[in-house]
Amino acid sequence: MTVFEYVADRWDRLYLQGLLHASAVVQCTIIAAVLGVGIGIAVYRSPVGSALATALASSILTIPSFALLGLLIPVVGLGTEPTVIALVLYALLPIVRNTIVGLGGVDPAVTDAAKGIGMSRIGVLSRIELRLAWPAILAGMRVATQMLMGIAVIAAYAKGPGLGSEVFSGLTRAGSANSLNQALTGTVGVVLLALALDGIYVLIARFTVSRGIRA
């Protein structure tokens, strides 16, 4: 059986696994963005706080994904829970770092001018600083998404959703019928999903970042 015949024969299952894979990555990126941007807002004015937040997020990224999932399984069990926790933790670093860099790069003259016309601190943050920092934050989310696409495959070790089960099953059955087709289909599927999500980020940037900032 060729790869194309394998895909056609199991299209319904592969389609569902692809949807679950993309859904897990997107939802975890959104959760990480909420947390990461919040952390960035809380610490970007403090050099010590910024360094500490970046160091903590970096230290999480140094933990091998197999080890992190192995530590989470006894606590939260198998399935979606350890997958979501691991993916959110791994996505924090690029988002926190880019939020700090983006907010820290806003020209003080711009915020001073906003305060001069009577804008509150919350108004300056929400209407000026976050808008100017948005390209950097979006770039952090884009990097996090691409990173999570690969890590989500490892999450199959904890019975997580997605195409990782295809890859793992193919590798564990190496040498048997269709094992190579199964591993190859899962791997190529993850790559195609990553390219599709990256294209969506390009469109989001095009429609949400003003021409003045892009230039």
UniProtKB/TrEMBL annotation:
<feature type="transmembrane region" description="Helical">
    <location>
        <begin position="85"/>
        <end position="111"/>
    </location>
</feature>
<keyword id="KW-0812">Transmembrane</keyword>
<feature type="transmembrane region" description="Helical">
    <location>
        <begin position="132"/>
        <end position="158"/>
    </location>
</feature>
<dbReference type="InterPro" id="IPR035906">
    <property type="entry name" value="MetI-like_sf"/>
</dbReference>
<dbReference type="GO" id="GO:0031460">
    <property type="term" value="P:glycine betaine transport"/>
</dbReference>
<keyword id="KW-0472">Membrane</keyword>
<dbReference type="InterPro" id="IPR000515">
    <property type="entry name" value="MetI-like"/>
</dbReference>
<feature type="transmembrane region" description="Helical">
    <location>
        <begin position="51"/>
        <end position="73"/>
    </location>
</feature>
<dbReference type="Pfam" id="PF00528">
    <property type="entry name" value="BPD_transp_1"/>
</dbReference>
<protein>
    <submittedName>
        <fullName>Osmoprotectant transport system permease protein</fullName>
    </submittedName>
</protein>
<dbReference type="GO" id="GO:0055085">
    <property type="term" value="P:transmembrane transport"/>
</dbReference>
<feature type="transmembrane region" description="Helical">
    <location>
        <begin position="20"/>
        <end position="44"/>
    </location>
</feature>
<feature type="transmembrane region" description="Helical">
    <location>
        <begin position="183"/>
        <end position="204"/>
    </location>
</feature>
<keyword id="KW-0813">Transport</keyword>
<comment type="similarity">
    <text>Belongs to the binding-protein-dependent transport system permease family.</text>
</comment>
<dbReference type="GO" id="GO:0005886">
    <property type="term" value="C:plasma membrane"/>
</dbReference>
<keyword id="KW-1133">Transmembrane helix</keyword>
<dbReference type="InterPro" id="IPR051204">
    <property type="entry name" value="ABC_transp_perm/SBD"/>
</dbReference>
<feature type="domain" description="ABC transmembrane type-1">
    <location>
        <begin position="18"/>
        <end position="201"/>
    </location>
</feature>
